[in-house]
Write a structure and sequence with these properties.
Strand content: 15-25%
Low-confidence stretches: none
CATH topology: Rossmann fold
Number of domains: 1
Largest sheet: 7 strands, parallel
Number of strands: 14
Mean pLDDT: 93
Order of helices and strands: EHEEEHHEEHEEHEEHHEEHEEHHHH
Number of helices: 12
Distance between the termini: 33 Å
CATH superfamily: NAD(P)-binding Rossmann-like Domain
Helix content: 25-40%
CATH architecture: 3-Layer(aba) Sandwich
Strand order of the largest sheet: 3-2-1-4-5-7-11
């Protein structure tokens, strides 16, 4: 298939594009380029792509594709809270506009990167795709709204599917340090302390970036009736872990490191365990990476490529990177690019 991938120069897109191309798909990217140079290790080889703001996409930019994989977004809860209005403009309104244009252009498949954060504070029981959605942040709320609006757009010729990804982890050449396992592993390597800024009891479902890439490839190639207007949780029950368990998994692969649980409360009310059975039963997809394997991979790559404290806290943290772009004049207050090449 000919596939448009938005956010192809992001953390997930950089891992996903080679997977799609290895399976014989022709990929074209679309990205603002904000994080294109946020690279640890050798620079990745990008597919042909377009530099564009998601809010400014035109019909011709989505014409000629069999599918759109939509990853581009303000990509986590703290970043979304930076400016809720801009979060909804980009994550919600621009995403739905992209879908409308794709439908008008005759694109049949629209694969949307949603999130398990839509379940919010769901307690200790496993939640499946039929569970009530309780978004607690602008980021999660924007994802729910997009899902609702795409349902309204769906018809016999336009098949959206919502991949509710668990919290991602694992190495990508375009690293993110602001997601839980990646963050804890970085602190273990740099400081020797795996610091948890809570009591460690909240539940988090985790999934490796490579498993997310595989899930999107499976949905891209699945029969249309299997994905039409469906939501799938992407991850594995084995990786439903408390934050404290994640921290101890990291400490086990960094000799001499220690876990420090500060006991702070109220910073993040999310806690949820997720049932991932539907994707196994209906799509034949099964996430394979464990938390321990991901921690070991991250520690190896951080060490091999010389991770520094400055890069870890600035270049690879989305909120810090956008603040830098703003302070340098590369983007304005609305997060629109002021000059190319920043």
């Amino acid at each position: 298939m000919r596939v448009l991938v938005t956010g192809h120069q992001g953390y997930l897109g950089t891992v996903m594009v080679p997977v799609l191309m290895a399976r014989g798909h022709t990929v074209h990217g679309l990205d603002t380029g904000w994080f294109a140079d946020c690279v640890l290790g050798p620079a990745p080889q990008d597919p042909p792509g377009t530099v564009a703001d998601l809010r400014d996409i035109s019909l011709d930019q989505v014409t000629g594709f069999d599918a759109v994989i939509h990853l581009a977004a303000l990509s986590n809860d703290p970043l979304g809270a930076l400016n809720p209005g801009i979060t909804h403009d980009i994550n919600h309104h621009a995403s739905v506009r992209l879908a409308r244009l794709a439908k008008e252009a005759g694109v049949r498949r629209f694969l949307y990167a949603s999130t398990c954060s839509v379940y919010g504070a769901a307690g200790n029981g496993l939640v499946d795709e039929s569970a009530p959605l309780r978004p607690l942040t602008p980021y999660a709320e924007s994802k729910v709204r997009v899902e609702d609006d795409l349902v309204e757009l769906a018809d016999a010729d336009f098949a959206p599917v919502f991949l509710r990804n668990a919290t991602a982890f694992g190495f990508s050449p375009r690293l993110r340090a602001d997601i839980v396992l990646n963050n804890l592993a970085g602190h273990a390597v740099l400081d020797g302390v795996v610091k948890v800024l809570s009591d460690g009891t909240p539940w988090r479902p985790l999934v490796h970036a490579a498993d997310i890439a595989e899930a999107f490839a499976v949905c891209l190639e699945a029969p249309l009736p299997a994905i039409h207007c469906r939501a799938y949780n992407i991850g594995t029950e084995a990786n439903n872990r408390t934050v404290a368990e994640i921290a101890h998994a990291v400490a086990e692969v960094v000799p001499g490191s220690e876990v420090l649980i500060t006991g702070e409360s109220g910073a993040d009310p999310r806690s949820y365990r997720v049932d991932f059975g539907a994707a196994r039963r209906e799509l034949g997809f099964e996430a394979r990476w464990t938390v321990a394997e991901g921690a070991a991979q991250l520690v190896h790559e951080y060490t091999a490529h010389g991770l520094t404290a400055g890069g870890f806290s600035e270049r690879f943290v989305r909120l810090a990177r956008l603040r830098h772009l703003g302070e340098s004049g590369a983007v304005d207050a609305a997060l629109r690019r002021v000059r190319i090449g920043a």
